[in-house]
Each structure stands twice: as structure tokens, then as C-alpha cells.
User: What shape does this take?
Amino acid sequence: MEPKQYELIVIGSGPSGEKAAVKAAYFGHKVALVEQAPMFGGAEVVTGTLPSKTLKETALFLSGKQEKGLFSIERDLSRKASIEDFMYRKNLIMNSEATSIGVNLQRHGIDVYQGTASFEDLHTINVSAPANCSLIADFILIATGSYPYHPSNIPFDGVRVHDSDTILQIKHFPKSLCVVGAGVIGCEYATIFSTAGCKVLLVNDKSSILTFVDKEVTQELLTDMKENGIETFFNEKVSSIDVPTNDKEPLRIHLESKKVIEADMFLLAAGRSGNVHSLNLDKVGIPVGPREQIFVNDEFRTKVPHIFAVGDAIGFPALASTSMEQGRIAVAYMFHTRDLEHHPLFFPYGIYTIPEISMVGLTVEEIEKKDVPFVTGKARYADMPRGKIMGAKRGFLKLVVTREDLAIRGVHIIGNIATELIHYGSHLVEDKKDLYFLISQVFNYPTFHDLYKYAAYDALSTIAGRKLKL
Ligand SMILES: Cc1cc2nc3c(=O)[nH]c(=O)nc-3n(C[C@H](O)[C@H](O)[C@H](O)COP(=O)(O)OP(=O)(O)OC[C@H]3O[C@@H](n4cnc5c(N)ncnc54)[C@H](O)[C@@H]3O)c2cc1C
Assistant: This one.
């Protein structure tokens, strides 16, 4: 059979692939999308973003912690809640979002092929069964995502020893969980499982957690983790794991320091690699880096100008939020849509730990390296009327400001809805707004946005040498 012809073939239906395919179709181009998995949505919908965020909300709900501050009610449902309760909403959201993506693709007239895509030549893609066909296109977009890193000394079995994909399929709730890796995914799952009533042991090969985050913020999270019984092991690496045949006996996790940790379940959350092995990239001369990531230029073009790559397949920052925009920008360059040709210089990071963390722009550690005079300003949730109403005990917003022009260079938040509050901070940083702009704004009252204003006053009082004690 003659290969069907398209203007664009998108490989992968994760956030970067879906948004790119839909945008190209919206602008009137003939698009095919190839997806190997039975469900649309990739890591965003099936194995990562939305499932973990839904588990976070479920853990908070089941533990009663959302209400604790307000009414001093501790429902402590966790012991009675079943694994089905814990997973129910996650499965509901997954199915609903995957269905929505399918509907969106169909609505835009995109032809979907199920199977694994690989390059036959510069313009031809072979798709394995069940689609079992070949397709030709002017442009090809690689949006194949990433997969969890599997070091050879970890005996992954998907039953007791998990990566971040299989932890979402657990059949019973562990009494204790050893999480290795204190990056975003490790810290999120550590606080989620701990909130749901599980004893968590967090191991990291560095001296702290979330090493790219503002140090005061990570200190606040660590204090919270400790209060909630999470045990931390820093500067430690796993050497081996004994998995007993009797599943009533604990796993024995041997650290290189000779310490041994016992836990019911194990999760490795220590990095991901580009999902490119099935693509036959050598046939089209596209090289990959050490973590199997594809190199691209500012337009998201690979070495081969009509083949683009976006999302986790190109590595940093590997977020659903940025992946979507990369897909849309790549399409802007393919078809000259002239609507969106650059990625903002600053984009927010959302870390859905309990409590949430979010940041944009420079940290104190980064600005110190630049050797530019700066000040910080801080406001605490517990001091804000909205915080008092909601029973906030911990959490703050911190501004990093250059002294010379009072411009806001960084915003760092830990606390309730930090991942929502940060977007105002993104505009302040991107538009180089200063402290006087910030204090001239009127916010609804009472809101958590007051944090911005009081952090600005705090920075101004430091500059004026009239620092108030917070
Ligand atoms: C536990 C976890 C939590 C996360 N939390 C967040 C968060 O809170 N916020 C955030 O912004 N990001 C988060 N992320 C990151 C986010 O999920 C990814 O950055 C995003 O999904 C990457 O999108 P993508 O389109 O590049 O790839 P993916 O979403 O991985 O999709 C790639 C798709 O390509 C398909 N595919 C691969 N190879 C082929 C092939 N050869 N042929 C056909 N199909 C193929 C795959 O089946 C998959 O469906 C999280 C990730 C994880 C693992």
C-alpha cells in the first residue's frame, strides 16, 4: 500500500505532541499523530503529572489535613482508607483526560495511528502493529517523552520495588516506603505517601533536597517533613536491595555507608532518559546525548531542518508546562504561523509537595554568584489574614530584588496554592517590575496575594535600614 501523505507527522500524544498536532491542524494543515500506548496523554496523563497531583489531593483529603488548621479536626481516615480509595480519583482523572485528548484530536481532523513509529528515511515513518503502515510528511515532530532511569543494582519488579511509572499501579498501601532521590518526583511522592499515613524514608546522594530550589524554602520543607515523621538520609547511595520471598518480611535496602534500611516498598525517583530508542534515529543522522536526549536549536529543529523535537525528548526542563509551549513554538516555525515564536525567558517551576513549592527567576544562591547587590523581602502565610482564616502555620513568599533598581528578579513560595500564586510573580520577573509597582497594586482582601505586598514592604524596610522582625 502506498504511504499516506501529510504535511506533519507527530510522534507521541503527550502534552508536547498533542498541542503541536492540534495547533498545526487548527491552522489548516494535514496532520497525522502516532501513539504507541493504548491511552493518549503520555507522562502527563498516564504515568506522571496528573496522576501524582491527583494522589496529592487524595492524600490530603483522606488524611483530613486540609481541614485540620481550620477546625482542628483530625479525621485520620488513612488507616481505614483502602488502596482503591487512594487510586480511585487518579484513575478517574486519567481516563477522563485521555478521552478528552482523543476527542480534541478527532475534532481537529487529525488522523491517529496506533503503533510504534520509527524512521525509514528522512520523510518516511513506519508504524508498527496494530496500525502497521508507512506515512510520509514534509515535517516530522519527535515528541516521544522520557522513561525512568533504571540502574542495574536496583531489582525493579513493579510489585515492591518501583520506579515512578509502576508506583501508580500498587495493589496495596505500604506501611513504609523508602524513596530514593530527593528531586521533584521523589519529594512529591515522599510527602504524598507520608500524608496518606505511610512511614517514609527519603534517601538522597546529596546533602539536601531539591538542590536547585532556594535554600530557605527547602529548609522549610525539611522542617515540615521532619514534623510529619519523614526520615532523611543524606549523602547516601543504595548499593543493593534484598527482596525476601516472603512478602510479609521487609525489603532490606543496603546503603554504601553500610547502613541498612528496612521498608515495605521501594521507589527510585532518580532521573529520566529520552525515549528515543525505538525511532531508528541513526537512519536520519540525528545524534543523541548521554541521557538519550535530542539536541535542538531555538526553533526546536534537530540537525535535520524539517525534523523537530520537543518535550522530555530534548531534556531540560522536562515539564508538561514547558513541553506544551515547545510543541506550539515548533509548529510556528514549521508553518510560519507568526503567533508564538519564543519561549519566555522565565518560566515557573511548580513542585507539588505537601506543602507546595513554586519559584520563578533567580534564587539567592544564583544572584550571589552574579555579584550584584541585592535584598530579599519575606512575608509569612501565618501573618496574613487569609492565612489566619485558613489556619496556616508554615509557609512564606520571598522576593529577590536588585538593590540598584529595586527590580524583582526572583519569587519563591512555599505554602498553600504556591503553584497558583506564582503566576503573578512570573509577570513581575518577566516584565522587570519593581517594588514600588508592587506596593501600588490593589488586591482583593483578604487573599494570599497580600504575601507579595508585605514581602515588598519587608524588602523596602531592609533597604531603608528599618528592618521589622518577622
Ligand atoms: C511523576 C511525575 C510527575 C510530574 N509532575 C509534573 C508536574 O507537576 N508539572 C509538570 O509540568 N510536569 C510534570 N512532570 C513532567 C511531565 O509529565 C513531562 O515533562 C511531560 O509529560 C513530557 O511531555 P512529552 O510530550 O515530551 O512526553 P510524554 O508525556 O512522555 O509523552 C510521550 C508519548 O510518546 C509516546 N511514544 C514514545 N515513543 C514512541 C514511538 N516510537 N512511537 C509512538 N509513540 C511513542 C509515548 O507512549 C507517550 O505517550 C511529571 C513527570 C513525572 C514522571
Q: What stands out?
A: The pocket of flavin-adenine dinucleotide is lined by residues 11-17, 34-37, 42-44, 47-49, 52-53, 116-117, 143-146, 164, 185, 275, 278-279, 311-313, 318-321, 323, 350, 352 (CB under 6 Å). Confidence is low (pLDDT under 50) at residues 67-79. The first strand starts at residue 4 and ends at 11.
